[in-house]
Structure formats: C-alpha cells, structure tokens
Amino acid sequence: MTALATKHNAINLAQGFPDYPISGRLMDLVYEKMKGGFNQYAPMPGLLTLRESIASKLDHLYQLPINVQDEITVVAGATQGIFTSIQALVGRGDEVIIFEPAYDSYIPSIKLAGAIAVPIALEGPNFSIDWDFVASKINDRTKLILINTPHNPSGTILIQEDWNRLYDLIKGKSIMVLSDEVYEHLVFENQRHVSLLQQSWWRDHGLAVYSFGKTLHATGWKLGYIIAPSFISKEIRKVHQFEVFSCNTPIQAAIAEYILDSKVYSGLPSFFQEKRDYLNEQIAGSLFHIYKSAGTYFTLVDYRDISNKKDTEFAKDLVEKYGIATIPLSVFYTNPVENQTLIRLCFAKEITTLKAASEILNQVKSEL
Ligand code: PMP
C-alpha cells in the first residue's frame, strides 16, 4: 500500500508510522552518545544502562521488580523479538494459536520454526475473544498462544477477565503466552493497559515484547525489548546471539537516558487520543462508520454505506481514484471474514495530514 501510495502521490494512512519529527532532545542524546564513544558492539542482551532504565520503567508502571541480568533482552525491534521468541519456544509440529486479524509477521515466524499456526478469527464490531472457542482449539500439540494488546489492527484492548480466562486454559500445562504489547502506552479514555506482566503467573507461562519504535515515534530505529523469565530468556538469547548478536549501541545509550523521565511515556495517551478524536470528528459527517479505537494508533472504519466491493478492491479505489492509502482488513486474516467491509486508518500523523485525509474521506461518494 505504501508503494501504491507513493506511485499515486496519495496521503498515506496505511502503514503505521508517524509523519512528524521525533524529540529534539532524543536526537541530541544520540549524537552525544556517538561523540562520547558509544559506537562499538553492545553486550548481547543489551546495554546495561538501557536494561536498568527499562527495569525502572516497569517498576514505575507495574510495580514489577525485574532482574536486569536475566529477564530483559534488547532486540532489533518487536518484529525480531517476536521472531526470536517463536524460534526459541516452538519447533516442528507444535501448534501456535494466534488471533486474527493479526500483525503480519506472526505466521511467517511460526512457519519458519516448523510449527503450525492455528488462527482464530475475531469479528467486528467488538473483536472480542471467545475463550470457550479457544479452549476447543487447545490440544497436546499446543505450545504457544500469541496475544496482542492493544490490538493492531482492531484497536481493542484485553481486560483482566480475558487474562483470567486465558490462564484457566493454560494452568498446569506446558503452554506459553507471548504477549505483543508494542502499543502499551497507547490506550485512551483513561482506560489502562492490562499487561501480561501484571499477571501473578507470568513468570511460569509467558513473555512480553515491546518496541521503542512506537513509544518514541521512531519506527525506523528498530529497537525493542523482551521481558521473559530467566529460563525463557536463556533460550531466546541462544537465537538472538546468532541472529542479531547485539543492537545499535548509541541509540541504546541515548534511550537509556531519555526514558528515565516518565513524562516521555505518560504523555502518550493524550497525545494520540487528540489525534484519534480529531480524525473521528473531521469524518463524522462522511459515509464511513467509525469504530472508536480504544488503543493503538489505528482506527477501523466501515464503508458498507459506500460500496459493497471487497475491501482490497475498495482500498485500491481509494488510492487510485481519491489519493488516500488505507489497509483493507482482510489482509490480516488467513480466511477473511465474509462481508466485512472494514479498512484501517493510521492516525499517528500531523494534524495537517489528518485534515487533508479527512477532506478526501468526506468526499468519498456512495456507489450503491
Ligand atoms: N507488533 C505489532 C502488533 C505491530 O503493529 C508492530 C508494528 N507495526 C510490531 C509488532 C513491530 O514493531 P517493530 O517496528 O518494533 O518491529
């Protein structure tokens, strides 16, 4: 979609990346660290200063004591973190339950490990998980359940009850939970992100993956981290050692200092909620039906009053005829839900971009 957007000189609300600059202080810190000699290989699990800053952030957010030696591994973005974790945790013939619509790296990572993805389709408008149905998919080969909250692309979040239901299903079994929490700070309307790490059982059953790309508006930096109990970290690091070895040193050093100030992430919900609300208000009079996103920097809109085309065709029309790129929801499914007329919009954009995008979306006419 991004390539198509470039070709048609379209406004790109498709791929999830901000179009505004990152913090000047953070840029200065990177430069400072480079000048200060932080330019050679970092230790394999990540710079100790960064792991310490991550630990104090987790303590501040979740009152969670974390062992910086064994429980934090810095990775080259969450995609690598997820890939590495999957390679470490599952092998040939194992089954991994995922919920779709899903981030596109999950299935290839599972297949490359020789394992089998077991997708469970969630449907709008709620995209809620039917835990009884999940129970029916669990068997002796099930080794991993992949969770994503806040959820890309639906913008929904898991609540404590979901975690309780999930635990009921895995208790006493050798099933792990990999929780993709890259949007942990992007939760709106004073709701709270409920993390795997807040579950009393997480050290027996799981690990969570995070991304500085989302938190620092720097998706191109590709830096993130995995929080895992030491017995899982040990396995993950065996893969990480020969896949990446170590991540960008000056950026790690800069982030270590930058995130010591909790305002860096405490301001994110209101920052993004303002953008979400602006977009929603601007297109309230359009023919699109808006799904109010509870988290992430995406929102879904339903075009059922405009067209009955397949979402892939509708999204293509939007780029080619109207000059706006979005993502059709069906691409996030193995077996797309029939007659779902949803596209995803990314609102991590300058207000001027959102204004221009809204003007276009307001002009989209009914083909029915
Ligand atoms: N998980 C989800 C749900 C995502 O949306 C993304 C980014 N689009 C990632 C993981 C990957 O994060 P990173 O850029 O740090 O690899």
Number of helices in the DSSP assignment:
15
Shape: globular
So what's the CATH class of the largest domain?
Alpha Beta
Can you tell me the residue ranges where pLDDT is under 50 for at least 5 consecutive residues?
Answer: none
Number of domains: 2
How do the strands line up in the largest sheet?
2-8-7-6-5-3-4
Largest β-sheet summary: 7 strands, mixed
Give the rounded overall mean pLDDT.
97
Our estimate of the beta-strand percent is: 15-25%
Radius of gyration, CA atoms, in whole angstroms: 21 Å
Q: Helicity, in percent?
A: 25-40%
What's the architecture of the largest domain in CATH terms? Answer: 3-Layer(aba) Sandwich
According to CATH, the fold-level topology of the largest domain is: Aspartate Aminotransferase, domain 2
Bound molecules: 4'-deoxy-4'-aminopyridoxal-5'-phosphate
CATH superfamily of the largest domain: Type I PLP-dependent aspartate aminotransferase-like (Major domain)
Overall number of strands: 13
Order of helices and strands: HEHHEHEHEHEHEHEHEHHHHEEHEEEH
Helix and strand composition category: alpha/beta
**CA-to-CA gap between the ends?**
25 Å
Describe this structure in words.
- This protein is of the alpha/beta class.
- It has 2 domains: 2-16 and 266-361, Aspartate Aminotransferase, domain 1 (Alpha-Beta Complex); 24-261, 3-Layer(aba) Sandwich (Aspartate Aminotransferase, domain 2), CATH 3.40.640.10.
- 40% of the residues lie in helices and 15% in strands.
- It is built from 15 helices and 13 strands.
- The protein has helices spanning 2-7, 24-35, 48-62, 78-89, 106-112, 131-137, 160-170, 202-205, 212-215, 230-243, 249-258, 263-266, 268-282, 311-322, 351-363; strands at 11-12, 72-75, 95-100, 116-121, 142-148, 176-180, 206-211, 224-227, 289-291, 298-302, 324-325, 327-328, 342-346.
- A 7-stranded mixed β-sheet has the order 2-8-7-6-5-3-4, sandwiched between helices.
- Helix 7 (160-170) links the parallel strand 5 and strand 6 (176-180).
- Helix 2 packs across helix 11 (249-258) and helix 3 (48-62) packs parallel to helix 11 (249-258).
- It is globular.
- The mean pLDDT is 97.
- The structure holds 4'-deoxy-4'-aminopyridoxal-5'-phosphate.
- 4'-deoxy-4'-aminopyridoxal-5'-phosphate is lined by residues 16, 77-79, 103, 148, 152, 180, 182, 211, 213, 219, 224.
